[in-house]
Amino acid sequence: MSILVQALSKPYILSTLNQNQWQILLAQANVCQLVGRLNYLMDVHEYSKPSYAKWHLESAYKIAEKQRKQALVEFLEVPRALKSISSQLTFLKGAAYIAKKLPCSFGRTFSDIDVLVKKEDLKKIENILKFSNWLKSEVDDYDEKYYRTWMHEIPPLYHVTRGSVLDVHHNILPSTNKHTPNIDSFSFTQVDVENAGIINTLDDTDLCIHMAVHLFTESEFHNGLRDISDFDMLIRHFQQTRPNFVAELITRAKFIGLFDYTRLATRYAHIIFSTPINGIKLDNLKDKSKILTLFQDFCFVNIFKPNHRSCRDWKMTVAEFFLYWRGHLIRMPLRLLIPHLIRKSYMRVKDYFKQDDDLTQLP
Fold first, then answer.
1. Looking at per-residue confidence, does 349 or 193 come out higher?
2. Contacts 24+ apart (CB under 8 A), 128-135
3. For 343, which of 36, 157, 192, 351 is 20 to 30 Å away at the CA?
């Protein structure tokens, strides 16, 4: 177990580390974008920060707080831009954590604001946002068609003056995924955000389910440890007032057809962080196939580690390979995946040689 995982699951360890251990811990946390979270945990538990680590911890936390403030601005500005639309606008993932002031939101960095809208209102919403200075990221014609045809979101938008990035979703999974739900099956809640007013988010159980779906349909796990730590913190937080929360979560996930992703998140949060799962047996979170369970255990136990030389080994490399292909196969069937990957590979090779040609034109 890495020193970072130990610190996240048992924060008291932070008060016992020596300088060499802190050096390794900060290096591991930095590649996982978790330095700000360590600062938050130390503040919550009132642990003294050693002088050689204090600057790193507090600097990372300040960056996260800047992003938090930017999210609060968008809680006001995005609904204001879309006030003429009757469609419900729902904030997802990191933005929802901030709106609800959940523990995992403090010290957490993120790259964009995620919102959910109804698909039938998407074109109208895009046009309104365009005239509110939200512009599309540059994507080629193929990627544009790919987004529009298969994905559950449009290409990212960025604001020309505020610099924020907005991901507009019309579902939480691509249409090619066999588990794609109807968004009307989700349960929503309203949150009163200071200086921004009332905004919509998913309720507690669906928030956790969406987090699990997002993580366990990925093909790349650069932020995997951060995200499974998010799930751990969410479960611990909600169980403080709802002791049977995990049982509620599993029941809810089965009802809306997203049990497989939710059981994976619950299983590996428990294995890695010893997340309490009151009322649920770990064996009930296994796949029905023993072979597939062994495969999943190998891959996910080895991928949810800091991608740092102190932790990286051949097992992590093998897990990355298998999970990369697993993620792509979940996203679309082979009849679509193979032509897509051939096209993307061709474009990468073409861009590589084009870059070489451009260099020859330099004076």
1. 193
2. 128/81, 128/82, 128/84, 128/85, 129/81, 129/82, 129/157, 129/166, 129/168, 132/81, 133/159, 133/160, 133/161, 134/81, 134/158, 134/159, 134/160, 134/166, 135/159, 135/160
3. 157
